[in-house]
Design brief:
Layout lengths: L2 H6 L4 H10 L4 E7 L4 E8 L2 E8 L15 E7 L3 E7 L4 E6 L6 E4 L7 H12 E8 L5 E8 L5 E7 L8 H17 L5
Antiparallel strand pairs: 1-2, 2-3, 3-4, 5-6, 6-7, 8-9, 9-10
Amino acid sequence: MGFRSWFEHRPQKAVRRTVRSHRTDSVLARAALVTSTGEAWAFATRAELLMISAPEAPAGQADDESRGAPSVVVHREWADVDRATYDTESNVIRVHWVDGAEPTPLPLDGRRSVLPQVLRERVQWSVVLAEPVKLPGGGSARVAVRRRVDGELFSQVIGGSDLDLADPDIAGVIDAAEARVRNAAGLPA
C-alpha cells in the first residue's frame, strides 16, 4: 500500500459532516472499523473519542446520498476512559470505561492507523496521578486525579461492580487515598 492510497481512504461525506458537528477540536487520528452493517470509523481528537456508524446504501445504490444518516455511537472525553487494550492478532482495541459500562470494541479494518498510539497517549495525558487501593475484604480500586482538555483537574474513583462506597470501612480507605492524590496534585482534599 503506497503513501497515496493510505491517505485516500477516508470516510464518506456524511460521516465527515457528523464528525465536524460533534467534535470540539481537530482530529488527531482516525481508523476505519470492520462492520457488517455499513461504514464505521473511530476518531481521536485532543478532547475526546468519537465512533461514527453509517448504514449501507440499499442494494443497487452506492452513492453517499442513498445511505442512511450516520449516528454517533461513542462520544466521550478521555477522562471517561479507564484503559484501552489492543490485541494485535485480532486487530481490536477494547476501550474500558471508568463508569463500568461494557467495554467498547473497535475492530480495526487492517489499514495502517496511528489510532492505537494516539488513544494510549490521550488516556495517559488525562491521568495526572493514580494510586491503587487495597480494600478491606480483599478487593481493590484506584483513585486518580484526571485532567480535562481545558486543564481542569478532578478526582475519580475507579472500581469494579463490587465496590460498595456505602460500607464505612471501604469509604474510609477510599476517602484517605483520594485525599492523598488530591493533595499531591495541589487540589483541596
